[in-house]
Write a structure and sequence with these properties.
globular; 307 residues; 17 strands; two-stranded antiparallel ribbon; nine-stranded mixed sheet; alpha/beta; homotetramer
Chain lengths: 307, 307, 307, 307
């Protein structure tokens, strides 16, 4: 790893949470002071079948075990109180953990035969991720969130084009437009406008022809600023197709594996961005905790920005 | 409904979120000021097969679509960069939405043929809850959390006994012990010690013989204090078996249906309670947002208390 | 029902299997004598994600709970014998019961508020089909199978065109070409060539623009011949779009509901048809039993024709 | 393998179906002549949550996507014909493929790092069994079935005791009682009475304390008689606990891996056995085909015995 930007060993040979280590009680307490109006903005798309879900994953399937219609059709009540007994609706879900707004765990992606911090790939088995599972982050990510609104900052308000590789210079422009700075422990929300565009399309196949996303020059930029996590309103964080000649998702390797930097995908930043543009405040308390699923390599989330 | 304690119509005939309406931007902003140390406490049990899950529900099943072991066994990489190409682990989940730490939506329980605010039960079908779905609460529950630690306050530190019906007087004792008051818009976390006891048992069947929980006298107490939500470390909020002669879960009817008060179950309050006992502070910022699943009648959650 | 072709009450008011009643021990014993060469032809398409599955249904998802790769990665063996202990692979399936080669149960489709034989629709609930479930047919369909090869008999060997409504006259042509007759208790396999065409398409959306299938004139034809079941190599048995002005699937009503005639879909009849064309024998022992799933409204099957 | 009883290479180095190779068109044609009365006996237990399912597997979960109750509650019809439009019930299943009456594929169990016929365990991955999948047997098992009724033949009609190791001598007794012989290509159904006993128990934990099943001496017996498959009304074929000092399931290794002999479990042989005792005929046409699921290591089945 000597020739690479990396955080292996930075927090000890047994560390499993990478850049989440940049979040401390002090950074959390400071982030809470950013709540001024008590306005809450969810950054989640609806968790449903229709959506910009990676084509290799099934859409989520929500099924009712029991419904109100069953009781209307004669299903017996439970007990006798009140008024003849109780009635309960109940449901199940079958879903890819990364089918909607999500975190990628550090166990989600790698290259070579080791994951972040040298964990052998053989520790990620059918039983789940013995190390680097999403549950290791179950009390994260609470902290200072910063929105970098690239469409407004550098694209005349228009969504970024498919295949556009965001550069470190682009991020600097957005930081300046946000009239703030990026600090250690921040959760960066980078808006492209790409995910909302999906819902406007008559032919969904257009969407998959490419995506705006991070280019290679952003890797040292993120590393130098010691951000805790990066989340975007695209499907795979990095530009698609990737820079250079071949396919693949190389920044997943450079960010998740080498830096141990957790990635969030399929965010919807429209409402938050509109509010930041209106009041000029691009920093907020961010709370985006995963479900506490042992051994999972990702988690559905409903991340909140609180201003 | 004239003879009952209820909130039907209080926020209009079309309201779908009930007592969550007590949460306002002001209450949220005030709650954020309760973050002093930046200490985060998750109130979630592990989302896994072993747990005090209601016996009628299946345990969650986490399955890997692809793992590190597959790549070690020869599965081809994706792309060529870096170093031979990327590798991805991916997973699926099949789960009852209420198999672990959860919110019950207002569409989860009722009696008669209407749910909260007069919604006909026929609107809860196999397609999900057309109204009162959990997604209506997707930017809730952020607010002031208050822990009422009943074991410490009134039971010598011991978990409450199975079948113990918590009274309004018990809640008053715990409020006094917390040296604070309950305010409109609060999310009340009421500790019994029951869920953690599950994990100590050699024979799980002991656990299901009964549970401590809320008794009927707490209903007007909660109504009068205008709490936004109640969550507990038991399985069904109310005492089991219920007070009075018959089986059933009548308080689900009085709370969810009549008051429109969202209920949280299978919380783990041990770490939070120990911290509150240590620093004497029983109020905190609470963030327990559901997943944004349209039409769901509950949601798995990972609720956080931030002090 | 007086104005309709129907079988309600024909086998008693409590009957739940409809035209399967035409199958008797005598017809089964006679069918067994049709096995001459001991050649077995499966009529199942592969039960996998890629296939002409009705677009409203999810593709099946096969997931491994444990695999050989896990053991290669270090998963412990079970016991010590032989040679260090046993190893087991295990798997799960999440699937729509009608996502592949299937029977539609009599509880699958109806119109008005009653199903076959007057069963109220309110008996088909989230708990499943209290009556008319597929499990009622768990010792069916064993009997004489007859292949009607429409492409060879009347279309120059070409698959039937999308939107082609098969008439009773077409079926007569195919029966004559088969040089046999249709008898009471038969399971009719009607070939169109439509399902195999799916697999040749570069753009799957072509497939869903229409389908050849049964037209209305076949209903009295099937009724008069007292067939036990009809199965086809299309997705919905009947022509799509349907004859007449409106959309819908009216023959499901006339066949499943009124006649109580079980329907099989997504069959693959290519290998069987080639063999019948080669040896001129269009009758065989057919064994197409459903899984014994209580309350299911359909079942995946692997139907066999044995010559 | 030189020191073991095995069939590796017997049907070529690329063979994937093992002893199923003993079934030929001739044996199938001869088996069909065994159908005299046209009586059909399913050997499947109900595919439902309650059953003698191996405790490590989840119970199957059958869920309705749409039901009759939904339509009664106002769900819109499809089309307008007949009589206002069609109505459809539809369902999903989440199940371990081996949760009920099943075949174990040759990819289900092994020892060392190779499966039957030297297939490396690394070919069984999250993507399924690249070789030895159950789909390779999709036109099997059709052939002569023989019932060996051990309770009637050697136990006074009583079910065999838990922990009873069936010997080759026991099998000989049952063959003599059946007044027939075992031939190459047969599918042997061996009755113990164990699975039906499950349903009589008030406390299911009794069931898991042990099981009657095959002992080691039956391995050369089965090998010598060139049977195509063995199926039993127990959960794991072999005696539990196993003979000798340690736990484990060694006969799975000797039978599935070394002989390539497919195993069937969780059969219900009660009705068939009663009929065989009544008419003295213990041979029949057996049809027990798996679902055509590519890469699966087992399959739910509904096996039929036809007399």
């Amino acid at each position: 790893m000597a020739d690479r930007l990396h955080n292996w060993g930075r927090w000890g040979s047994g560390d499993e949470i990478g850049t989440a280590n940049f979040i401390t009680p002090d950074t959390i307490a400071a982030a809470a002071t950013l709540v001024r109006r008590g306005a809450v903005f969810s950054c989640a798309i609806p968790f449903e079948a229709r959506g910009p879900r990676y084509p290799t994953r099934l859409p989520p399937q929500h099924l009712m075990k029991r419904s109100g219609a069953d009781y209307a059709a004669g299903h017996p009540t439970y007990g006798t109180m009140p008024d003849g007994g109780m009635k309960f609706a109940d449901d199940y879900l079958f879903a890819a953990l990364q089918c909607s707004t999500q975190w990628d765990a550090l166990s989600h992606a790698w290259y070579g035969d080791t994951l972040y911090n040298g964990v052998p790939e053989t520790e990620i088995r059918s039983t789940g991720a013995a190390r680097l599972g999403i549950e290791k982050l179950y009390q994260h990510f609470v902290g200072r969130g910063v929105l970098l609104d690239l469409p407004r900052a550098m694209n005349g308000g228009e969504r970024l084009a498919q295949g556009y590789a965001i550069s470190d210079a682009d991020l600097d422009i957005a930081v300046r437009a946000a009239r703030t700075e990026v600090r250690r422990g921040d959760i960066l929300l980078i808006r492209t406008g790409h995910v909302p565009w999906f819902y406007t399309l008559a032919d969904e196949r257009e969407f998959w022809k490419g995506a705006p996303g991070l280019g290679r020059s952003t890797v040292p930029w993120l590393h130098a600023r010691e951000v805790a996590a990066v989340a975007m309103d695209n499907v795979a964080i990095e530009v698609q197709p990737p820079e250079g000649a071949d396919q693949g998702l190389p920044l997943h390797g450079l960010l998740l594996r080498d830096l141990g930097l957790t990635l969030g995908e399929l965010f919807d930043l429209e409402a938050l961005a509109a509010d930041c543009a209106a009041d000029g405040v691009y920093e907020f308390l961010f709370v985006g905790q995963p479900l506490r699923i042992p051994g999972a390599v990702g988690s559905p989330i409903n991340p909140l920005a609180i201003k």
